[in-house]
Specification:
The chain is α/β, with parallel strands linked by helices. The protein has 2 domains: 170 residues, Rossmann fold (3-Layer(aba) Sandwich), CATH 3.40.50; 209 residues, CoaB-like (Rossmann fold). 32% of the residues lie in helices and 24% in strands. The strands form 6 sheets. An 8-stranded mixed sheet has the order 13-12-9-14-17-18-20-21, with helices on both faces. It has a 6-stranded parallel sheet with strand order 3-2-1-4-5-6, with helices on both faces. A two-stranded antiparallel sheet has the order 7-8. Helix 1 runs parallel beside helix 2, helix 3 crosses helix 5 and helix 4 packs across helix 7. It binds cytidine-5'-triphosphate. The site of cytidine-5'-triphosphate has 15 residues, from helix 11 and strand 17.
């Protein structure tokens, strides 16, 4: 399979409206990231936005002509919206949101919005006083009630020097909202438990043993499930990653035992469990109540932690069960054994000692091991790997 085959936005035409807010400069990054995801981007700028960024910058970033005049190319307001799969307005000022909510079409962008039949994502950005204004809030509610997708804004320091709500959402969140809007919702009404990250097994209140898992793969799987409309319960060991937007539950745990308890709590309602976490296999038999003194001789006797995947595999009635096998070396044989021994439905194998496929990197090279087949994939981003994995899982879940 070619590397770019699974890019979620491949073959999508995105019409990006840039309006007059300080965050307009971020559109260069947004365009670059959308193109990296395989999309083609055409930009419409309002006149006000040109105070913050030049049309030339956006033309270079997008590789396409930038539009802004309603009359330069008289039919552009129809042609542009007819050719787009999705419209995104980022940043979206109070002015464009007000016009959109009230059907006003007095420039190219507002006219295109009115003639567009697909999904529209808006990323509001403004001062908190404007954001909290009840008239603005009514406009926003009206758009949402018509199916417009809002992403952000965030709280933080604003361009005017004040603190409050109104910062444009992170570009990653805007991209995620776009991907979600364009995704097939074939997992809607399905409940999926995903575990991610390492666990910590404490020796005393300040010392623990852990492993190098970052949680990146599990979080990518959670995002891919959310895009497909699933109810996602993410159970995560300690990780520095931002939890995805839209989770049904986000449960933070530290130890393997806590992870096991959280998984089993949600298990009765789950259609699938994806064990992307790397729970520690051993934990000190005893956790000291106070910090050990270094003059003490350290002799630790470890006990095995509960094997969560095997525990679910042993149940008479269980959800669809996916495990991961991170091995050092090309040990597909070990991964195959885990599929049988843990009674999983699928194991995602990856060789953590091969380049680009280890811990804390954004890429992975996986092989999906099912009972009757094995499918190797080339090196791809963890987001793309999550996407190919979900495509297979969704097929199974649709049949259940
Ligand atoms: N796993 C689990 N509970 C544990 C350890 C692992 O549920 N206490 C799950 C992992 O989340 C993963 C799968 O089992 O989905 C395989 O984990 P891995 O560490 O590769 O295998 P282990 O069973 O721990 O065996 P070993 O470390 O000896 O390879």
């Amino acid at each position: 399979m070619a590397k770019d085959k699974k890019k979620v936005l491949k073959n999508n035409n995105i019409l990006l409206g840039v309006t007059g807010g300080v965050a307009a400069y971020k559109s260069v990054d947004l365009i670059r990231r959308l193109k990296d995801e395989g999309a083609s981007v055409t930009v419409i700028m309002t006149d006000a936005s040109k105070n913050f960024i030049t049309p030339l910058s956006l033309e270079i970033a997008s590789g396409n002509k930038v539009y802004s005049s309603l009359f330069e190319d008289p039919m552009s307001h129809i042609a542009l919206s007819r050719n787009a799969d999705l419209m995104v307005i980022a940043p979206a000022t109070a002015n464009i949101i007000g016009k959109f909510a009230n059907g006003i079409a007095d420039d190219l962008l507002s006219t295109c919005i009115l003639s567009f039949k697909g999904k529209v994502v808006i990323a509001p950005a403004m001062n908190w006083r404007m954001y909290e204004n009840p008239i603005f809030q009514e406009n926003l509610k009206r758009l949402i009630s018509h199916g417009v997708i809002q992403v952000g804004p965030d709280k933080g320091s604003l361009a005017c020097g004040e603190e409050g709500i109104g910062r444009m959402a992170d570009i990653s969140e805007v991209i995620e909202a776009i991907k979600s809007a364009l995704s097939n919702k074939d997992l809607s009404k399905k409940k999926v438990i995903i575990t991610a990250g390492p666990t910590r097994e404490y020796l005393d209140p300040v010392r623990f043993i852990s492993n190098r898992s970052s949680g990146k793969m599990g979080y990518a799987v959670a995002r891919a499930c959310l895009r497909r409309g699933a109810d996602v319960i993410l159970i995560s060991g300690p990780s520095s990653l931002q939890s995805p937007q839209g989770l049904k539950s986000f449960v933070k745990v530290e130890t393997a035992q806590e992870m096991r308890d959280a998984v089993f709590k949600y298990l009765p309602e789950a259609d699938a469990v994806i064990m992307a976490a790397a729970p520690a296999d051993f934990s000190p038999g005893k956790k000291e109540k106070t910090k050990m003194d270094k003059s003490e001789k350290l002799l630790v006797k470890f006990k095995n932690t509960p094997d969560i995947l095997s525990g679910i595999g042993r149940l008479k009635r269980r959800p669809f069960l996916i495990g991961f096998a991170a091995e050092t070396g090309d040990r597909l044989d070990k991964a195959r054994k885990k599929l049988i021994q843990k009674n999983a439905d699928m194991i995602v194998f990856n060789n953590v000692s091969s380049a680009g496929s280890g811990f804390d990197v954004d890429t992975n090279k996986i092989t999906l091991i099912e009972r009757d087949r094995e499918t190797p994939f080339p090196l791809m981003s963890k987001d793309e790997a999550a996407e190919v994995l979900l495509e297979v899982i969704a097929k199974y879940l649709r049949k259940r």
